[in-house]
Amino acid sequence: MKAFTDQELDTLTLVEGALALNAAIEPATSLHWVRAELELLAKEADHLLAGETNDELRLDGLLRLFYKEWGFKGDFEQYFSSDNAFVEKVLRRRKGIPVSLGAVFLFFAHRLDLPLQPVGYPTQLILKVNWLDREAQYINPFDGEYLSQRVLRGWLIGKEGPSAEVKPEYLASSDNATLIGRWLAVVKSALLREENYAMALRCSELALTFSPDDPYEIRDRGYIFQQLKCDWVAAEDYEYFIAQCPDDPAAELLKLQVKVLTAEAPIFH
């Protein structure tokens, strides 16, 4: 499997980097169609909005075009479906989750020279609007609505508890490699939930090209190998995790798993 470096990902737009990784996970991805569709929509946006010299009005126009005219929206009904994390399927269904919708929206925003950047907020991806003459604003790509500080803090309270506060670093722009890493975790989680272990394994292998010695990713790969009935390979991954993280609560449980998985010697033909 091709290894992607942080430097390579940062030379691409976020949606292009995600598309490259989507194709590595699902080789049947139609790269040509996705690029053609993105270009077609970008030209439509350019035709309708490029003549507007006011950035705020141009952004409002793009939000209206993307969410109203083109019909992109957050998938409330099947939020955790893997369909929402693959760029091709998001473009075909016009449904997605914050990271996929945000990446697609950013593609068009940058084509229109709008001052937007992605932010890997602790709860989800959000879009930061860097105005020259006033404070930054934040957009929820799930529905295209502007986010208040109250809503942002409310999200954190739901995740971390009542004492949570919105720290400046939470609202800093994120690089592609960081966002792609989080995206991969979302894809893998969805595929595991759907019991698509072959594709989940590709996600895990891709994640390990970024952090080859990550014991938690290696533990997760072990679980996938176990579901694929590759017991001895799974045991090796579990043993690595146990050695690297002996104090982790999962270590004792995995020791029992290793004993079960290695109880019967493999037969070589």
UniProtKB/TrEMBL annotation:
<feature type="domain" description="Protein SirB1 N-terminal">
    <location>
        <begin position="33"/>
        <end position="184"/>
    </location>
</feature>
<comment type="similarity">
    <text>Belongs to the UPF0162 family.</text>
</comment>
<dbReference type="InterPro" id="IPR011990">
    <property type="entry name" value="TPR-like_helical_dom_sf"/>
</dbReference>
<dbReference type="Pfam" id="PF13371">
    <property type="entry name" value="TPR_9"/>
</dbReference>
<protein>
    <submittedName>
        <fullName>SirB1 family protein</fullName>
    </submittedName>
</protein>
<dbReference type="InterPro" id="IPR032698">
    <property type="entry name" value="SirB1_N"/>
</dbReference>
<dbReference type="Pfam" id="PF13369">
    <property type="entry name" value="Transglut_core2"/>
</dbReference>
